């Protein structure tokens, strides 16, 4: 069964048929047995997968995470954000090396691939060191080099190095990632914007995540975070704003008018009690809403199936409207919309369509929680699990087959991660 999705419009419909890949593109999407036979004849040596009883669909796009924070998963939970950052997260991060971050990134990417995520937008330290990691594992990524006022001088050369390292790989984009409008000065926000413009890069930041942020920004600049960033010229179609929870109607209009991609992270928002993003109001205003997991300390996993489900549930719960964020719209946020957030044109990624990039996943529907298939989209969003994904293709390459990630020795990875975490915790 094939779920093509579409760039816009109504609920997607499935069909029984064939999907053919040539190089890194989808070259055939058909219900015709004759067309499939023609494709087979024109491509001798083709590898074929029997997907009867399974679903072929676009890979999921996680538009906001800190993948290397897998090393800190469950390190400190059920405490307030500031205590969490100051007493646990930042001391741990201060002892991490670039190699540790690359290792954490490896674990995060493996978790995402096994959960059907074919593209992700990251925001962390040492992203220059992670270019090689991402290239090797085969996933598609936008790596955002995070900075604060305190380390901006260190990070800017890392951005330039990362741009050079990623130049030969279309799957990897580099981006500027000032942490937030309350931790980065206007001068340094503009410094990042200038570098982004120089290389044509995206820019991402946390926007209006907490009431505290709104208060601090108002006290410092007399504006909302959106007004402040907009006044600096930071908002545009190459901007990804994570969270966007505490936004006014006028902020929403601005986000929509500038073409900013909003990354909605419902599980993180619930876990650290940040609030509920007005997703339905943002969608109604025409803003590009997408879905992200955030880091594994505030979630605590990178499971986009759970995130989709939570996004739909949370909007229904918060608005009191069971019609809010229907399943197929939630799925669109995590496929076609996510692809647009990463700069891909409509129809180029996040859809199963001839000519699109071949980022596909195969979901095994032969599971008790996915039967019967009255509505496959509802099943995916309301019952789907990361572990239902059995095959993953990124850029035309098979990176997960029978739930094995190509080129990764999982026991060795887990042992390496455990050793690194023990060393960092011991302060060695
Ligand atoms: C965003 S990576 C840079 C920096 O931010 C810290 N961080 C991770 N998650 C959050 C969050 O939800 N709010 C604020 N800051 C966060 C991370 O540990 C890094 O130090
Ligand atoms: Zn975040």
And the CATH topology of the domain at 60-342?
TIM Barrel
- CA-based gyration radius: 21 Å
CATH architectural name of the domain at 60-342 = Alpha-Beta Barrel
Count of DSSP H/I helices: 16
Bound chemical compounds: the ligand CSC[C@H]1O[C@@H](n2cnc3c(O)ncnc32)[C@H](O)[C@@H]1O, zinc ion
- State the end-to-end CA separation: 52 Å
Q: Looking at the structure, what is the overall shape?
A: globular
CATH class of the domain at 60-342: Alpha Beta
The overall pLDDT average reads 96
* Secondary structural class: alpha/beta
Strand content: 15-25%
Tell me the major beta sheet.
Answer: 8 strands, parallel
What is the CATH superfamily label of the domain at 60-342?
Answer: Metal-dependent hydrolases
Low-confidence stretches: none
Relative helix content: 40-55%
SS elements, strand count: 15
Strand order of the largest sheet: 4-5-6-7-8-9-10-11
Binding site for substrate: 93, 179, 209, 294
GO molecular function: 5'-methylthioadenosine deaminase activity; metal ion binding; S-adenosylhomocysteine deaminase activity
Cofactor: Zn(2+)
Binding site for Zn(2+): 64, 66, 206, 294
